[in-house]
Amino acid sequence: MTEGARSATRAGRPQQLAGFTVGVTADRRRDDLAALLRRRGARVVLAPAPRVVPPPDDTRLREATRACLDRPPDVLVATTGAGLRDWLEAARGWGLADALRAALAPAYAVARGPTARAALRAAGLRDRWSPISASCDEVVDHLRRRGVAGQVVAVQLHGRRRPGYARALEAAGATVVEIPVHRWAPPTDPAPLHRLVDLVAGRLVDAVTFLAAPAVESLLEAAGDRVDAVLGAFRTDVLATAVGPVTADPLRRRGVPVSTPARARLGMLVQTVADELPGRAITCTADGHLLTVRGHAAVIDGELRPLAPAPMAVLRELARHPGRVLSRAALLRALPRGADEHVVELAVTRLRAGLRAPRLVQTVVRRGYRLRVD
């Protein structure tokens, strides 16, 4: 067993995500998410999509802060922990941190998610309510039901303006002060994102995780004229997962099923991936062995055996038709374009060597190959 396969196996059985490849489109929290996935045995492909960066200058942020000091908000909406912390840090640089905290302290503070709640508490501010879905729509509905007529609502923005939310609150009688802490920007290096597009379109990645709706749009934009191939992969072979319904919306509007956790937390997102991917694996008994076909590896009698893409593609096609003889031409369609029947024979040879169970794949003379299922 290779060192990689050994590290992906615990107590004689593979970890939940061993043998699977997961794409990570997050920028700011990519390392945290990747570490959680690797801890469960996954192979991770990092492809940061849009970046969250400070605005070109702090003029608008400083003006919004002054507005909060001149007329302290009745309601404070903290959308992200990082955004709230950076706002207070900017105020500290202007010598206004204590005054800002004092102005915000009496406000009815809404934390859109757990990181925003933690940031509020760390700043000595009391959070009063949080949406179950971490959705801005749910926040707006809650505030409208609670009543905001004649009140000042300060909304810490995350990446971009949401004019619809401001208009909805203003229509309910509120004065909205938007706090522009961050903005979305393209990735510094677009190459990893284009590589992820290649992997998704080629079904060489098993799942992709999204932490923000702009990451979805960025990936689809990077796909260009291959966007239909990417969406087709997400609808069939590649699991799309999002931290919450707002993030999932751009894919769901395009007919893609998206798995989301009950609560918008990294750990629960990883658990969603770990719960779903193993259930997509093909399992059968062949030549006396218990065989499970995962994304880039086979599991034989509990032992993980990673395979190269071509042998893996042949094994996956044989496992989809257990016991059935598949011709070289049929297997050729599972390989990258440009391959020939000689490549199929080579892939079968490498497959037998990688599985270390040569009888498992049977040659049927003049017809093709089959899995020797029991």
Can you give a write-up of this model?
This protein is α/β, with parallel strands linked by helices. It folds into three domains: 3-50 and 187-280, 3-Layer(aba) Sandwich (Rossmann fold); 53-184, Rossmann fold, CATH 3.40.50.10090; 282-371, Winged helix-like DNA-binding domain superfamily/Winged helix DNA-binding domain (Arc Repressor Mutant, subunit A). It contains 16 helices and 20 strands. Helix 9 crosses helix 10 (213-223) and helix 10 (213-223) packs parallel to helix 12. The longest helix is centred in the C-terminal third of the chain and has 15 residues, at 266-280. The model is unreliable at 1-5 (pLDDT under 50).
What is the topological layout?
Elements: H1 3-7, E1 9-10, E2 13-14, E3 21-24, H2 30-39, E4 43-46, E5 51-53, H3 59-70, E6 75-78, H4 81-93, H5 97-104, E7 108-111, H6 114-122, E8 127-129, H7 136-146, E9 152-156, H8 163-171, E10 175-179, E11 183-185, H9 191-201, E12 207-210, H10 213-223, H11 227-236, E13 239-242, H12 245-252, E14 258-259, H13 266-280, E15 282-286, E16 289-293, E17 297-300, E18 303-306, H14 309-320, H15 328-332, H16 341-355, E19 361-364, E20 368-371
Parallel strand pairs: 3-4, 3-12, 6-7, 6-9, 7-8, 9-10, 12-13, 13-14
Antiparallel strand pairs: 1-2, 5-11, 15-16, 16-17, 17-18, 19-20
C-alpha Rg, in Å?
A: 25 Å
Outline the low-pLDDT stretches: 1-5
CATH architecture of the largest domain: 3-Layer(aba) Sandwich
Q: Overall 3D geometry?
A: elongated
Strand order of the largest sheet: 4-3-12-13-14
The CATH class of the largest domain turns out to be Alpha Beta
Total of DSSP H or I helical runs spanning 4+ residues: 16
Structure summary, number of beta strands: 20
